[in-house]
Design goal:
This protein is an all-alpha fold. The chain contains eight helices and no strands. The protein folds into two domains: about 1-115; about 115-269, no CATH class. α3 packs across α5 (about 120-155). The longest helix has about 35 residues, at about 120-155. The chain is globular.
Length: about 270
């Protein structure tokens, strides 16, 4: 089922690339339908896998990447429904196809079932963090589109993206909405993580590398929101900081576990 979801994401990417060039509305609608179908098939695959394992399938790198892709796809559909930012679908299709390609090619390492990776607080922590990161990833996508549109506006002649993207104000609005949503989810994801850590290891905080970098990413977005509210940070500055913040999230999700270790390394074996 995961292979079928990957195929749907990949075909949607081809559709969005065609739409990028030719701007045919039926192609855009078809691409949205393909991502929707991909998310539904992906969700069904996760449910089946979870039922077989007796918990959330996030016990190794392949499973964690698959769960991250599902969260990203679901969050994209929500943002698309709210804002109808068509070209954001190209960014989403690239992320979904790339992530699922890794799921397809990386070895699905067999892991011994771990009873500590269960329970209400663990499930809340995983779901909130993954969906929060997904929203912040979409904020990054909107930020990239903002920078592309700004470049086209400032150029002597409108560039390729100028007629294909909405106004800068709208792109900034979408990015900010995604930041607020992601920050809210990530905040509660970290809180539930602290509660889970207390229940399992007897302490809320252990200076684990993942904890440190997660808090660092949270602080980047907290500062960004503060500067927007009180110092008028909008537009280009906000877009760049959003991209930097998501880069930290990616390193926190993959790089920390692979290169620095810690008790979260369990998820990237």
């Amino acid at each position: 089922m995961l292979q079928f979801a990957f195929l749907l994401y990949l075909v949607s990417l081809a559709g969005y690339l065609f739409y990028l060039v030719y701007q045919k509305e039926p192609v855009h609608r078809t691409s949205i339908y393909l991502i929707t179908a991909g998310v539904l098939v992906h969700f069904a695959a996760i449910v089946v896998m979870g039922a077989a394992m007796g918990g959330l399938p996030v016990h190794n790198l392949v499973q964690s990447l698959s769960m991250a892709a599902l969260a990203f796809g679901g969050m994209f559909l929500f943002v698309q429904y709210k804002f109808h930012l068509k070209m954001l679908g190209l960014f989403a299709a690239i992320i979904l196809s790339g992530t699922m390609l890794m799921v397809m090619v990386l070895p699905d390492t067999q892991v011994v079932p771990n009873d500590i990776l269960k329970g209400f607080w663990f499930y809340c922590h995983i779901l909130l963090v993954f969906t929060g990161d997904a929203a912040l990833g979409l904020a990054c996508g909107a930020g990239i589109l903002y920078l592309l549109q700004e470049k086209g506006i400032k150029a002597k002649s409108p560039g390729f993206f100028f007629k294909r993207l909405p106004s800068l104000d709208f792109l900034d609005l979408v990015s900010h909405a995604c930041i607020i949503t992601g920050f809210f989810l990530l905040t509660f994801g970290l809180i539930t993580g602290f509660v889970y850590a207390k229940a399992i290891w007897g302490r809320f905080w252990s200076w684990d590398f993942k904890e440190v970098f997660s808090l660092g990413a949270w602080l980047v977005y907290a500062v960004l929101i503060h500067l927007r509210l009180y110092s008028g940070w909008r537009g280009r500055k906000s877009a760049i900081m959003t991209i930097v913040g998501f880069a930290i999230i990616i390193f926190t999700f993959l790089g920390v576990n692979m290169f620095l270790g810690g008790h979260h390394q369990e998820f990237t074996k």
